[in-house]
Amino acid sequence: MRPCPSCVTTANCPEMHKHNSRRLLAERLTLAATRYQEAVVIPHCAKCLAPCCRLDSLVLELDWKQVKAFWRFDESRAAFDRRLSAGKGPVEIRPMNGAYYAHGKACPAYDEAHRLCRVYDQALKPRGCTDFPIYEDQGSVVADLRCEAVDPKALAGWIARFVGQGYRVAQSADEEFPFIVTFSVQRPGRASGDGLSGDCR
Ligand code: SF4
Ligand code: SF4
């Protein structure tokens, strides 16, 4: 057991117990999200009616390296930025705060015929693509219901199975973007994010 970062002990430290419980909960939720992607979402992609990679409703965040590779530019970033600000760049790309946002046209890395991502297993794949439509975030699972494969009721049951008995899974939609739903794990009588009890490890 690692010593507690607060009191440098390993025995009966309530802070350490809480820390370990939170870490364990995050691990379980990460596993639940990953398994749901593998078992439910990815098998649906080939028959999806509204593929996310077409970027009709989604916005893709990219860095310069990804923009350069996906659109196959051979110019410098400075030259590209000048072109964009002169209105001569791809209309689907907007720069903001050092990043680039693509929307309204299919991602160039999307193979429409085979419905595949050409950079699926590569470091170039944007983080947002890996996390979509479901990921763990600070002791909760966040799901994006713009993906038609996500069934909130089934997902709540799925998460409950991963965290074990004695917990309930509560859902709340984002006020501004109601298609973003957070699933938090709660033990009756305790606040959410409490972590797992000893008998659930
Ligand atoms: S929206 Fe969901 S099911 Fe459709 S292609 Fe994207 S990840 Fe796959
Ligand atoms: S990088 Fe791949 S997963 Fe991401 S939008 Fe493009 S084709 Fe889709």
Give the overall shape: elongated
The major beta sheet can be summarized as: 4 strands, antiparallel
Low-pLDDT segments = 197-201
Tally of contiguous helical segments: 5
Biggest sheet: strand arrangement: 6-7-9-8
What structural class is derived from the secondary structure elements? alpha+beta
| Residue share in helix | 25-40%
Helix/strand order:
HEHHEEEEHEEHEE
- Could you give the distance between the termini? 15 Å
What would you report as the Rg, rounded to the nearest angstrom? Answer: 21 Å
Q: Residue-averaged pLDDT, rounded?
A: 89
User: Which ligands accompany this protein?
Assistant: iron/sulfur cluster
Counting copies of identical and different chains, the oligomeric state is: single chain
Number of strands: 9
Estimate nothing, just give the exact number of structural domains: 2
Strand content: 15-25%
Give the helices and strands, then pairings.
Elements: H1 14-45, E1 60-62, H2 64-71, H3 77-85, E2 93-96, E3 99-102, E4 110-111, E5 116-117, H4 127-131, E6 134-137, E7 140-144, H5 152-163, E8 168-173, E9 180-186
Antiparallel strand pairs: 1-3, 2-3, 4-5, 6-7, 7-9, 8-9
Bound molecules: iron/sulfur cluster (2 copies).
